[in-house]
Amino acid sequence: MPSRCPLLCRVFALLVLALSLPALHAASAGEEPALLLVTHARFFTMAPGQQQSFLGYMLVSRDGTIAALAAGDPPAAVHAASTFDAHGHWIMPGFISAHSHLWQAAYRGLAANKTLPGWIADLYGARATKAAPEDYYWFALDGALDHLQHGITAAYDFAYGGTSWDNPAMKPGAIDFDTEQYRAELASGIRFVHGYQVEKVPPGTPAETTLAVARPRLRAFLDYTAAHPSPRALSTMLNGSTAFNETPQQAVMEAALMREFHLGNQSHYLEPPDTIAAEQAKFPWFVDGGLMQSTLIFGHFIHTTDAILEQTAKAGAGMSWNPLSNGRLASGTADIPKYLKYGIRVGMGVDGEASADLADPFENLRTGLYAIRDKYQSATAMSPYQVLSLHTMGSADVLGVKSRLGSLEPGKYADFLVIDPTDFGPVFDPYASLVLIGSQRELERVYVGGQLMVDHGHLLHADADEVERQVDHRVQSEVKTEVPAIEPAGVK
Fold it and tell me: What percent of the chain has pLDDT over 90?
């Protein structure tokens, strides 16, 4: 590995240092010290145009954002409450999962030999609908902590909604499912987008009828989140159900909620090979209902057509690619190079741990890269750097948070990983080493906002044993709240 940056790298470092001078001056002028100073690290920033790594330092402000990041040693006058000497180890942004179901960590390994329809029947029909809201607190907490342990510092969480609006037995407690999972997301320390399960419009019912029920329930949840603010809570989006419904009124209702509450929407679409024609036929519902906009994310989005891709790109919508889950459920391979050529924004997700089984972004990277190369029968169809950028900046982009996450740059949150490259052996291409060889074994530390969350696999701010005990007890217990076994409202 070269020990010196080329000219472009030095120019970049000088520009970063110039932007950082006000923060450095404040840190050396007797004011409250910065939160963290990282020295002697090799940085892989994933910032646009900055592919070359460099040896340098990073200063993290008290608010958890990056105050300075530059090559070389920090000025002698710079001080921080804590200093971490990386001893040449590698630092990269935390992975971002653009598509996760945190609560599904309670059901790892389920329906191992079934494709999506049978898997859904086993998970939802036989299990998920029998769990109470307080169970979902522990399920989601377990998943969030597992994400952190594997180096995922931010995730879109498809929360379990628990009901359909027309089930009278569930109306009084329906909001509890989302609030319990939101509490778990906050407690875990992960950064998150909360995916709120929107109501499902029954066939033959006008969108306005469902809106009358959905609007106050959504407002109550948003009021709850406003009363419990946190920099870890990035936003709330709708878990869309248009592709799972039998009426185009679903899209009309979801679009109305998006406009009224200024929310994005992530909708599972075109995932299983079993229903390709039926789901493709519903694409006009997305268009005519008003869902096709830049705040829409298609989850999975495998079995597309050129017409669908063209309109998706024109609308500025994005998609979340979930290679581990797609391979496990035999759903197919999304043609990511083609999507990127169309100009569609692509992020990556580890999906739920009941279908991907491990929230492991390294395995997700490799699975995705190999699937694309197999599909094209070409080793140049996608590079390690390209796939790594999709799981960092790409995911930040589709979630609407690329100004705050996805790369290591001054002003962004200091969410980063420390990688021990010792076991990589000779390094011919550092990005190839990260993607082709990297694993949890090399993951030394996980930071969120400059706060150390995981040290050599050990959670520092959670009782992992108690969480696992709670989850095991609640999954295995035969005593459950009396919840009718209803059809899930369009979530996977």
Answer: 86
| Kind of pairing between the strands at 296-300 and 264-269 | parallel
Q: Phi/psi at 80 (nearest 5 deg)?
A: -145, 160
- What type of residue is 143? G
Reference 58, options 48, 46, 67; nearest CA is 67
Phi, psi at residue 350, to the nearest 5°?
-95, 0
Strand 95-101: give its sheet, edge to edge.
345-348, 318-321, 296-300, 264-269, 233-240, 191-197, 152-158, 95-101, 351-352
Is the separation of the CB atoms in 452 and 460 below 8 Å?
yes
Tell me the per-residue pLDDT of 265-310, one tens digit each, with 9 for 90 and over.
999 999 999 999 999 999 999 999 999 999 999 999 999 999 999 9
CB 61 within 8 A of CB 112: no
**Chain centroid offset of residue 125 CA:** 26
- Could you give the CA distance from residue 404 to residue 375 in angstroms, rounded to a whole number? 34
In whole angstroms, give the CA distance from residue 374 to residue 397: 27
Residue 354 tokens read as 């009941």
- Taken in order of first residue, the domains within the chain and their CATH numbers are 34-93+411-458 (2.30.40.10), 95-399 (3.20.20.140)
Type of residue found at 208: E
DSSP symbols for 216-255: HHHHHHHHHHHHS--TTEEEEEEEE-GGG-SSTHHHHHHH
Contact by Cβ (8 Å): 350, 157: no
Eight-state DSSP code of residue 65:
B
